[in-house]
């Protein structure tokens, strides 16, 4: 139904798009708007109720065009029933998206007029024309992508430099880079400290203390930023290029190239660091890092302490070991653990006293090792003793739930295969209609693209379901068998500290959620799996924290909650002729998760 206002005019929306924020493109955008008003003036029976525009945005993906998506949403709500745009390429350069949106709008009574192309989606042959012009626009996008790639290759051979100038130590001036004296001093400070044996954490702390600004003018530093500065050849007058490659020009999927594929370009700008010092820094980095199973390099800091590998703070940081105190009676060294974030960046009090920002500050209190030893002792006694049958029952219930899912998956697979068969039959009939000249080339291309898209979507869903069903079933069977086997093992609990190998085998992670609140993650299935937490060493702390929470909620099951009271702590310490500092005691609460 065509919507009209009280004056009998048809409600119209206009859409404009330019692909870059370049001055010439902005001018083109303004021209589109003037053109729109001219068209409206020629049609007094129309009323312009809304204008939608996307500036500096590609036309190959609708999801990256917020105004376009808002227009589609408003059209489907019935806010207007006619969209005018200058040409098909302004509406989009992805043939499948253009045709799908046009069909969806037409089915809901909304017409699109591509004025310059003389196409209306309500015309008899509108779909055919639209398909032909959309295909042409998509080909032009592909050619543009190829031209850009070829242009970059030519530019590299001519030593043309890239970058907007947002690099510490330099400003972009014309086609080259000019040293920023104040920022260059910060760069030299970073290299000097590193060459004199300081690590990136210590350098970061010193930069914050001295209120040194980063390339954005902020007193904000990350260890990963400092590490990248130490590796950047810009500081010796050179630039890495060919760091990425476009693998899908329509969906703008970019792949990061291996470092061996980088191309090093010699610039004409002045260096801040000598090549000798830069090479020394690279040698130091090579000695300090190792490859972790093909993942990102991480700094080496070897330790034999089991808790150092397992402990994590609620802020996302790991813990660091230190000598807490010496036992007055035995002379034995008491170990403590402190959050690295707190130790490296300081507490709230320290940061306030030194006029440092409070972003990401952590005030977690230090932990003593015997609290951890007592917790794991109680946890394993619970699981192997009182909780043994309940833990097995939890996994059996999960197994039953997954068996119900398998029945549902079988039904889904049958439905998906039926849909694919139906679309294949339609595709065959479509070819017959085109061969008999019952339909034109444009309609043939349009319908075939629609059927192919539906077939691919259903095939992808089948692969996803089939790929997960068998592996999940085997994994569940193996896990349940391993759990039952593990719980049959005999463990000697009559010791102050449990066997270290046992703890390393069973405990995946321990997170201090509060000063006296913990989460324990146990892998009692004995399955050797990849690190399910998938945390990279240089990731931001808030990202690490979020990953841990997501892993807990998706990979682990809450087995039970427990508490260590003063009486339990006193009993444990007394058994080994030791005592508890009762005036400092706070009950310890902990949740135990298993997988």
Automatic annotation (TrEMBL):
Cross-referenced Gene3D superfamilies: Putative Large Serine Recombinase, Chain B, Domain 2, Resolvase, N-terminal catalytic domain
Boundaries of every Recombinase domain copy: 167-291
CDD domains: Ser_Recombinase
Top-level taxon in the UniProt lineage: Bacteria
InterPro entries, A to Z: DNA_bind_recomb_sf (IPR038109), DNA_bind_recombinase_dom (IPR011109), Resolv_N (IPR006119), Resolvase-like_N_sf (IPR036162), SSR_resolvase (IPR050639)
Cited PROSITE patterns: RECOMBINASE_DNA_BIND, RECOMBINASES_3
One Pfam family of this chain: Resolvase
A GO MF term: DNA strand exchange activity
Protein name stated in the entry: Recombinase family protein
Organism from which the protein derives: Clostridium chromiireducens
């Amino acid at each position: 139904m065509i919507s009209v206002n009280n004056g009998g005019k048809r409600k119209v929306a206009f859409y404009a798009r330019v692909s870059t924020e370049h001055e010439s493109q902005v001018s083109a955008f303004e021209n589109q708007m003037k053109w729109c008003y001219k068209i409206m003036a020629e049609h007094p029976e129309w009323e312009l109720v809304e204008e939608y525009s996307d500036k500096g945005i590609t036309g190959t993906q609708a999801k990256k065009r917020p105004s376009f998506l808002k227009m589609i949403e408003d059209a489907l709500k019935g806010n207007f029933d006619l969209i005018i745009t200058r040409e098909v390429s302004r509406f989009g350069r992805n043939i499948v998206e253009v045709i799908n949106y046009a069909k969806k709008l037409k089915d809901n009574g909304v017409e699109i007029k591509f004025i310059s192309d003389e196409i209306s989606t309500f015309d008899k042959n509108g779909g055919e024309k639209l398909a032909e012009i959309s295909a042409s626009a998509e080909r032009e996008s592909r050619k543009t992508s190829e031209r850009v790639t070829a242009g970059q290759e030519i530019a590299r051979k001519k030593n043309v430099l890239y970058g907007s100038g947002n690099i510490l130590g330099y400003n972009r001036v014309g086609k080259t880079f000019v040293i920023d004296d104040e920022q260059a001093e910060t760069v030299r400070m970073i290299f000097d400290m590193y060459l004199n044996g300081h690590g990136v954490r210590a350098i970061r702390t010193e930069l914050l203390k001295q209120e040194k600004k980063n390339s954005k003018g902020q007193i904000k530093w990350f260890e990963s930023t400092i590490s990248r500065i130490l590796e950047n050849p810009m500081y010796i007058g050179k630039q890495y290029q060919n760091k990425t490659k476009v693998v899908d020009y329509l969906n703008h999927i970019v792949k990061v190239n291996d470092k061996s594929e980088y191309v090093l370009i010699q610039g004409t700008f002045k260096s801040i660091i000598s090549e000798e010092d830069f090479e020394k820094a690279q040698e130091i980095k090579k000695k300090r890092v190792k490859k972790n199973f093909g993942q990102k390099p991480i700094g080496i800091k070897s330790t034999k302490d089991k808790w150092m590998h397992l402990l994590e703070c609620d802020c996302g940081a790991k813990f660091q070991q230190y000598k807490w105190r010496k036992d007055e009676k035995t002379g034995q060294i008491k170990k403590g653990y402190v959050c690295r974030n707190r130790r490296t960046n300081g507490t709230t009090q320290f940061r306030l006293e030194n006029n440092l920002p409070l972003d990401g500050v952590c005030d977690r209190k230090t932990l003593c090792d015997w609290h951890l030893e007592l917790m794991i002792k109680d946890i394993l006694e619970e699981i192997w003793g009182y909780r043994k049958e309940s833990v097995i029952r939890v996994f059996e219930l999960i197994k039953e739930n997954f068996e119900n899912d398998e029945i549902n998956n079988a039904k889904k697979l049958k439905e998906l295969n039926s849909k694919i068969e139906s679309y294949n039959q339609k595709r065959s009939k479509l070819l017959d209609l085109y061969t008999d000249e019952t339909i034109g080339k444009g309609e043939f291309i349009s319908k075939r693209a629609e059927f192919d898209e539906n077939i691919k979507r259903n095939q992808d869903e089948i692969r996803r379901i089939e790929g997960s069903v068998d592996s999940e079933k085997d994994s569940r069977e193996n896990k349940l068998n391993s759990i039952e086997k593990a719980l049959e093992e005999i463990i000697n609990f009559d010791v102050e500290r449990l066997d270290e190998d046992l703890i390393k085998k069973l405990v995946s992670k321990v997170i201090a959620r509060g000063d006296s609140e913990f989460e324990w993650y146990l892998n009692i299935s004995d399955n050797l799996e990849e690190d399910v937490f998938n945390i990279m060493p240089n990731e931001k702390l808030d990202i690490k924290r979020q990953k841990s929470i997501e892993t807990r909620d998706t990979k682990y099951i809450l087995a039970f909650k427990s508490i260590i009271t003063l009486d339990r702590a006193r009993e444990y310490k007394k058994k080994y002729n030791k005592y508890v500092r009762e005036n400092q005691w706070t009950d310890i609460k902990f949740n135990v998760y298993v997988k």
